[in-house]
Fold this sequence. Notes:
single chain; alpha/beta; two-stranded antiparallel sheet
Amino acid sequence: xxxxxxxxxxxxxxxxxxxxxxxxxxxxxxxxxxxxxxxxxxxxxxxxxxxxxxxxxxxxxxxxxxxxxxxxxxxxxxxxxxxxxxxxxxxxxxxxxxxxxxxxxxxxxxxxxxxxxxxxxxxxxxxxxxxxxxxxxxxxxxxxxxxxxxxxxxxxxxxxxxxxxxxxxxxxxxxxxxxxxxxxxxxxxxxxxxxxxxxxxxxxxxxxxxxxxxxxxxxxxxxxxxxxxxxxxxxxxxxxxxxxxxxxxxxxxxxxxxxxxxxxxxxxxxxxxxxxxxxxxxxxxxxxxxxxxxxxxxxxxxxxxxxxxxxxxxxxxxxxxxxxxxxxxxxxxxxxxxxxxxxxxxxxxxxxxxxxxxx
Length: 359
């Protein structure tokens, strides 16, 4: 039974619906517990999203967060930010949709001309969005702009990057010497992803071209932990293939998000570039000296639970002995199998408790 008329129905509803901003700034998060790998991830999420809120122009962008099945504490924190108005769109998923599934939801929800996507362990420096948009608006054939320069990706596609200006005629190779590339960018990225820092000298030797158009420059290299897509790129990429895997699997190229991502944009004639400056940076999963520095430098006021600041990797003599056994092909797999089994058990219990509480 219905009584009366919906006051927003028909002509009375004109001009009442919310029209989104130029950019939808989206983040996908998943922190199921505070154990093992996730022990300090909540602190990094706070650093990431607090920097995003502080350094994003609300007149230009709406912030969207998709929680992909996190624990109660994380959901309560995000809900609080949403209630305060810092997060415009906040969506909770009872189950983890997988990485590709989460991306599909975000891409489909974006109504803006541009979509900024990031993982939940990314720091946003002041001016990040303005610099990304500056590149987008001065290079018409660009579909994706990253804000965290790294030669680690250039080394994987070096020949492609050098030929990028020839493939896309409207990208004019700058005659300026690429002195603006800072060694610190590669060092920070290598540390954040757990790569061997000994790779740095090799990366430092790689020459990086600079592209310029209308006095705006960019580097012909990109990263996937954060990027800003044009509407054309969004429509080319969506939807990603989905399945029951939580994340991409290199053994299944058709499901691997990174391989699909790069191929689709390349086949579509849309270039992937990075701003001439580090405006976002990858943080990793432990509270490091760098994380502490960024928190203090930008005066981000939130409590952290990390018991120590990780400076460098260290190990006891017992661990070093264990490492030798782990190098034995068959025996070395046992600790990983136990870790995976315990990880699955803990997540299954968390899901069981959540289902029980909702009944």
